[in-house]
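Students often ask why we bother encoding 3D structure as a string. The short answer is that it lets us treat folding as translation between two languages. Here is a chain of 200 residues written in the first language.
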Amino acid sequence: MLISKLRIGVTMRILQAEGYDEPRDALASVWASFLNTALPEAIWMPLPNIGRDSIKAYCEQWGINRLILSGGEDFGVSPMRDETEHQLLVWAAEHKIPVLGVCRGMQMMAAHKGVSLKLVDGHVRKRHTLQGSLTHEVNSYHRYSLTECPQDFVVTAQAEDGEIESIKHSALQWEGWMWHPERETPFNPIDIDRLKALFK
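And here it is in the second language, the structure alphabet:
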């Protein structure tokens, strides 16, 4: 049996299960459909929120060589998730691992570089046509936006109101998208092609 060279780790949100006094890591099930469609040859697994001291060893143990910082929760709501994803970005930079940040994941990339976030109107359960090097229509589910482009990144798309919708690192294979490619029905071929190019 061939072992895939693509081994993707996907971060998870932290939820409080109703009726239980315990936090739980969770990942929307549609991610399985999206990744199996976009990268059928890849092996992927959800990454637990285990903090900055453990996540690097965990990823190395499983041979993770690509990362997706998924959406869900506002940045700052779950300190353990923030710590885990911050350390993942440190590790990814050290080893030049390609990273896609989706919605909150892009916000995490910005916060990792010291950029603050701001509340915005008109970006929850809306659709936007991107302006810039990307021009397709995307979904939008976020309450916060970046105040500026992070250092070492360039803006690749904005919404009609000028808010930053997509960024790309100038040296690393890192991109941030404020939309959710996994929530499109059907999945957008543009998003699939861009993910394939990023994770090649």
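Translate back mentally: The longest strand covers residues 124-129. Keep this in mind for the problem set.
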